[in-house]
């Protein structure tokens, strides 16, 4: 553009680009960046949800109930009448959010829609759905390294739960050479935490809310680990073998397929000169199990995949991608004793029937309101639900019956209040000359979702008939 200024020469002015710039679509929630994608220290999805709630200054419960439950197919859990189902979701199903199930896929889809991100599936094991069975895959409760938390805070880094910590075979931190903690170390808590709880916060206990990386926390962990960590090479190998799987997920052109893993197993097992029986004995499985792997009828769990890989001297990643070379070497020449993984025995909760009976009698004698459920009682006294039902059946039935009666009474009171609200709203609309439609009644009651329930519709139809309206 040129401008004439009197008799002087024209002055050249800069040209302005008036085209409207491309503005990306806005996301409902913060587009919070995940930690460590493409590395063995990739963040877990449950940890991401906790950090996302913390970034919005809300509790995890509010974020999940008001934003995420519809994507999980669990909208009914938002109803106050389903408080026990929501509690069971926190306790028993939150670990599945990091795994290979539909629950994890639905949460990833919902978070990607709400945050505008497209890389959240790598915070789970969804990439390995076809090659990692659900059995023996994940820990039931949270595990962490308090020294990692402390060092991250001191260096100004964000505390989070890596996806590696959620997996059952990972029980040690290779950096600090200590066992991962599984219960809160503070004496007045000493309880396990779910991977995602209603009050979860990054680096804090989901039960008492205290910081898990303090000096007293690290000292208390001595009671949880053995006096000396032997077979450290095994834990190093396990950690890095699984970490390689997690780190490679973003770079794969497509998720590994089951038939590719089966080909890799067949190719590897053919190179075992000692035969399948010798391999089965070393793995601690039956001959038929190894035979089923060869035929592709079943695939090994993560534990067994690590066992096979350690015995064959290859990484699990090479095995699931069929990157295996048949060299005809013997089993002994390919594996070293230091890297052979021993499958841990399944632990059982011991029970002292007399002590448990006394504890249950004391709980029954206490007029606690609301009364605890049998599962909550089992958690309080450090027992399992099955142990209580099998060893103290009479008192267990009494506790369960008292809890059930209270829930039924609460439900009856809630339904009575709901019917009264709907009745009053319909009468008010009738006096104003309006038809008491669902939408009009919903605008006048405290919980509009009541109109979608069977009891709510029954109450509305009943008052409509009394007022002379057609239902």
What's the structural blueprint in terms of helices and strands?
Blueprint: E1 2-3, E2 11-12, H1 45-55, H2 60-72, H3 83-93, H4 102-115, H5 146-154, E3 172-173, E4 178-179, H6 215-220, H7 232-248, H8 258-270, H9 276-283, H10 287-295, H11 302-312, H12 316-320, H13 331-334, H14 353-365, H15 374-380, H16 385-391, H17 393-431, H18 438-442, H19 454-467
Antiparallel strand pairs: 1-2, 3-4
Helix pairs in contact: 2-4, 9-10, 14-17, 16-17, 17-19
Unreliable residue stretches: 220-230, 328-337
In one word, what is the shape?
Answer: globular
The chain-level structural class is mainly alpha
Strand order of the largest sheet: 1-2
What share of the residues lie within helices? Answer: 40-55%
The fraction of residues in strands falls at: under 5%
Distance between the termini: 73 Å
Write the H/E string, N to C: EEHHHHHEEHHHHHHHHHHHHHH
Task: Write down how many β-strands occur, each being a DSSP E stretch of 2 or more residues.
Answer: 4
Largest beta-sheet details: 2 strands, antiparallel
Walk me through the structure:
The longest helix is centred in the C-terminal third of the chain and has 39 residues, at 393-431. Helix content is 46%, strand content 2%. It has 471 residues and is mainly α. A hairpin with a 4-residue loop joins strand 3 and strand 4 (178-179). It has helices at residues 45-55, 60-72, 83-93, 102-115, 146-154, 215-220, 232-248, 258-270, 276-283, 287-295, 302-312, 316-320, 331-334, 353-365, 374-380, 385-391, 393-431, 438-442, 454-467, and strands spanning 2-3, 11-12, 172-173, 178-179. A two-stranded antiparallel ribbon has the order 1-2. Strands 3-4 form a two-stranded antiparallel ribbon. Helix 2 packs across helix 4, helix 9 (276-283) crosses helix 10 and helix 17 packs parallel to helix 19 (454-467). The protein starts with a strand and ends with a helix. The protein has three domains: 29-212, no CATH class; 257-339, Orthogonal Bundle (434 Repressor (Amino-terminal Domain)); 358-467, no CATH class. The relative contact order is 0.08. The chain has 19 helices and four strands.
